[in-house]
């Protein structure tokens, strides 16, 4: 027993010493405290040159981590075991994070470049007065299609997706809100609908789409559509832009029944250890030149009005990605449906996916 205690003590001392050494080395390399900024973002969602420039300008070391869904991001921040100084969630996730006290209130006096954001994208319902969030990118959900492969279909209506000529030709992104929203919108319902009869109607209609569904996929949807592995895809507008850059045969349409108008936003989670650095980074990204370069790299629509003047006209005048108010007036922001209803949406989507196999 004494030998076991001595062994445990030695292991404990060695582990403690290693922790101290790691902390010292990290500090000496600028990897802790105020010299480090940890950013949590979607994959391939920032120009990496901007991260390098921020490091050079600020003297901080950027640690960059990625997530593939708002739900995954929320889970990790809720667990609280990892430090994130800046995160970039979507609007409905921000509503949930506010409810659970997972966000630090922003100091607007430290964000002088906030003046560059278009007023249309400020003071929205999910964060009035932008107390906790600053717009990063915005866009829509719609249909990418290859006109040469769809026999005259235009996708001005969601119902075109159900055309039997599209058998085994549709790729769907792997998102419960997006796919259930498509089903609800196709029936004239809100994509935030919580009426159980309407949800079951949407599920039943989606089930009839399965002969046309080739696969339900993640980020690989961009490569598959660009390579003409399928004729049609349900995608976010930024992905559509990237796909169309790879294959100029393709087009993008937001159906007339309506769809999602989404916003991704910069926030400071309560896990932050470098709140001052987080404000510096957010303000850096709000600089017009930085915002314009980021928009060109990522392919999504910038809410930065001053940056628009720096972007090529073929980008800013493309109404597929910078739609006018006639279209945006038909679009809806995702509401925070609450944990129970969001879980129900996920269950319905899982039922659809199982039916699609």
Automatic annotation (TrEMBL):
Database matches in SUPFAM superfamilies: Periplasmic binding protein-like II (SSF53850)
One Pfam family recorded for the sequence: SBP_bac_8
Residues spanning the membrane: 7-25
Subcellular location: Periplasm
Key words, A-Z: Membrane, Periplasm, Signal, Transmembrane, Transmembrane helix, Transport
UniProt keyword Transmembrane helix present: yes
Claim: Signal is one of the keywords in the record: yes
Primary location: periplasm
Gene3D superfamilies documented for this protein: Periplasmic binding protein-like II
PANTHER family, A to Z: SPERMIDINE/PUTRESCINE-BINDING PERIPLASMIC PROTEIN, SPERMIDINE_PUTRESCINE-BINDING PERIPLASMIC PROTEIN
Protein name (database record): Spermidine/putrescine transport system substrate-binding protein
Species for this entry: Paenibacillus tundrae
Phylogenetic lineage: Bacteria, Bacillati, Bacillota, Bacilli, Bacillales
